[in-house]
Amino acid sequence: IQGVFVNPSKLITQLAEDQITRIKAEESATIAVVSNSTQSLESRNAMFMWFQLFIEVLLRMHHTSSARQELIDICKQNYQENPLELSIINEFEATYKPENAIWWYTRECCFYRILNKALRIQDFDMLFALRFFITDLSKQLNNEYDRYLREMPTRDIIRVYRGQAIHVKELKLIKSSIGEFLSMNAFLSTSLQRSTAVSFLNTIQLHEEIDRILFEIDIDPCEKTKAFGHIDRLS
Q1: Residue 196's closest CA among 216, 211, 182?
Q2: Nearest Cα to 206, choosing from 28, 29, 18?
Q3: Which of 39, 90, 188, 195 has its CA at a distance of 20 to 30 angstroms from the CA of residue 181?
Q4: Rounded CA gap, 214 and 212, in Å?
Q5: Taken in order 215, 170, 28, 137, is the CA torsion positive or negative?
Q6: Do 23 and 210 meet the contact criterion of CB atoms below 8 Å apart?
Q7: CA 77 to CA 15: how far, in whole Å?
Q8: Is the CB of residue 222 less than 8 Å from the CB of residue 155?
Q9: CA–CA separation, 59 vs 176, rounded Å?
Q10: 44-61 burial, b if ≥16 CB within 10 A, otherwise e?
């Protein structure tokens, strides 16, 4: 029992807040810990490597026009009772171009939710259906990465911030894995301003299973890393 309410409107308000918290937790990046322990090498590390290989295969595949239609059909089926989302899906079907992949991912609509969920729970079937979108996102992000490095005046360390909801079990895993390798199964959105990430954190309602976490991520432009870029002009 989370609470006792005698006022129906307060109950509805609380239910709405709980639902928002649940959605934020579900849309947060899942964190994988890869260590040198025997148990991890035999199980967790193996799953991590298989997932990375699967994504790499998707990125190397040749994608036909039918791949896009396959995703559109799935989205229409999943959101057939949601007129607003159906309207956005129809717009996607009529106007989508590979060079607009980041714009579509950052738009408040079903596409980023479906992709984030598939990455989070490692839904291989759904990820395969998303293969052309993942490829377009990766290509555009790599182009932005190259542009960002070319235009950087210096090669100083870049610090970015990310605030998100996190399950208590995941937070406990992180605290017990100091010095280990952490991987997030997501296209991460971050901010150069700490205050922006903190402001987002303050919108997350705490729950017995949900906590808040602020990541400070240092990026060395001199090191070969996963692609990143400044995407304000694209989103």
Answers
A1: 216
A2: 18
A3: 195
A4: 7
A5: positive
A6: no
A7: 27
A8: yes
A9: 33
A10: ebeebeebeeebeebeee
Q: What is the DSSP letter of 80?
A: T
Spatial distance between the Cα atoms of 221 and 134, rounded to a whole number of angstroms? 24
Rounded Cα–Cα distance for residues 47 and 97 (Å): 33
Tokens of residue 134, six digits: 């993942």
d(CA 77, CA 41): 40
Element (H, E) at 142: helix 131-151
The CA dihedral of 108, 140, 45, 116, to the nearest 10 degrees, is 10
CA 222 from chain center: how many Å?
25
CA distance 177 to 186: 20
Helix axes 83-95, 65-78, angle to 10 degrees: 170
Instruction: Give me the DSSP letters along 75-91.
Output: HHHHTTT-HHHHHHHHH
Verdict on whether the full-model pTM lies above 0.90: no
Per-residue pLDDT of the chain (235 residues; tens, 9 = 90+): 456 777 777 777 777 666 555 555 555 667 777 766 545 555 666 777 888 899 999 999 988 889 999 999 999 999 999 999 999 999 999 999 999 999 999 998 999 999 999 998 899 999 999 999 999 999 999 999 999 999 988 889 999 999 998 888 889 888 888 888 888 888 989 999 999 999 988 888 777 888 999 999 999 999 988 899 989 888 7
Separation of alpha carbons 135 and 101, rounded Å: 9
